[in-house]
Amino acid sequence: MKKLLLLAVTTFVCFGSAALALEPGKPIRALYLTGGCCHDYDHQKVIIPDAINANINVTWTIVQEGGTSTDHRMSIYENKDWAKDYDIIVHNECFADVADPEFIENVLAPHRAGKPAIVIHCEMHTFRALKSDAWHEFLGVTTTHHGAQYPLDIKVLQPDNPVMRGFPHDWSTMPEELYHIDKVWPTATALAQAPEKKKGPDGKWIDTPTLNTLIWINTYGQGRVFGTTLAHHNETMQNPAYGELLTRGFLWACDLLDDHGNPKTGFAPAKK
Prior knowledge:
It contains 5 helices and 10 strands. It is an alpha/beta fold. The protein has a single domain, classed as Class I glutamine amidotransferase (GATase) domain (Rossmann fold), CATH 3.40.50.880.
């Protein structure tokens, strides 16, 4: 991503800040929501904002709740106006056993009305116990499980899509979780995929014909959603390719990404 001369400072702001219109030259206000089982959310709440702030100017409010539970209800969602003070929401949660439709509707309503979102990894299994497809429609994919960990051979499907500009066309990750995607919704566009693998007679991983989407964009009501099932491990998140992908997805969701994969005029990337 092209770098311009604007210093990035990660700023943590408090709840109750005045709602301001998104303006060129102003930091983008992001709300980062995290917590739940199975992942190193303590470190990821630093890794992900830092990766994005290495490229663009963002102020962050970070909310972490629920310990390692699977059934915690994030308290912020109890307020129907929970998203109003922010320009974009980054969801990196893992609460699979929450299934209250009314509660989940509180989460969905701002996004359906136009609030941009990023959804990362286990967010795709959050609210997995919900009986309806309401959450999957927002995500843009339906998935309920993943397989063993092995290196993912990522294949870019849409190299000319602005979100994928500069992303390695063939990136083999460290051993990672490949989420099995049962459905890509009609409102979503798959941007990259990876094959499932199995162990051969010699114990080495070999590709199968089954491919799973792992990077995509989605339109949900009036809102834009960027999604990726990458990454389980902090080391993958710390790869520069991952940070720049998140940055482009972040800007795309805010409708601030131009056709060349750079911030639109006035929303300059920061110098590392």
